[in-house]
Fold this protein.
Amino acid sequence: MRPEGEGEFATYFTARRDAVRRSAYLLCGDWHRADDVAQTAFIKLHRHWDSVRDKGALDAWMRRTVVRAVVDESRRPWRRERASAVLPETVATGSDPGDAMGQREQVIVALAAVPPRQRAVLVLRFLEDADVTATAAALGCSEGTVKSQTARGLVALRAALAGGR
Amino acid sequence: MDEREALDRLRAAVPDEMPPASFDHGSVVRASRAAQRRRRQVVTGALTAVLVVGGLGGAVAALRALPGGSSDSSSGSGAVAASGRANAMTDSAPTGAAPFGQGPDNGIPGCGTATEALVSAVVQVLPAVSGRGPYRLTRPCPPGTTGAAFRVGDGPTSARLEVLLGPAVVASAEPSGSARTTDGRVVTVIDTPAPDGSRGPYAARVDELAAKVAAALR
């Protein structure tokens, strides 16, 4: 990498690390996995920094990398997510579902029950405020697919939230 | 619950507090540079193999073409011998492991992604880690090593147990144990502390776990 590229990357990393971690966490519901995904994405970005021509599109590049990493990894045999009545350990034992933390955790659990691609669409469109075009680019699918996945994802999320009450 | 309420709850779920990151700028840059070095080594190795094979094939063909030597399908048998040798150089790994000297280009230096056989062996030996991994490794590894990490503590950031399989013991400053499989590979188990320094529950059992995982791998 060019010397000035190292400084540019460092600036971008400092500015965006936590945002990327947060996105990864919303996509996978697990801080350990989120850090793995985020770190891998930054390593890839560092390796390809000089070949990324449009530095203004770095956020989109990172978004695409993180989303695809989470969705691709969810397909591995031992990673296949199964619906479970047991709450994951990220939910504090005895947390009051009435308090803000408890409600937030319930939503994360419900989001984890949504199929990976639908979950990715919901996170990108409603939490990252990505439009349909940007979401389609991140997922590598058509805009029509994004719209249908959005509708299905919302149905799945509503069902998961209603079931968790 | 209507759609609007679901979306409101979704937007309210964005965490405003986060646990400390397990990586920083320095670790990212180090991992990136190590990956680039490995890539150059793989490319250099592949080019060397091509040159050697080409040279051997040409040499054998030339020798057989000398007066008094067998000339029937000489270049063919030379090419077969050379290609067999090439296959031996690049396809020496036991079933279920990544080829020696290679690893998936996932940006992680050294350590290849754990095979399903290794993950199954770990879960068989330690059922408590089921569903708590596997996570990618970011430590440097000898070429041909695969592995994964598993969460073993409580809370959003916890200690990890790293299990690696490869041609040699993976050195570590952390508590670690190793054992050989029946086909000569080495299982290394490393207890990696949580960011706050707290140890996992298996730090004193890493030797035992390595032996059990090695025995579970057939």
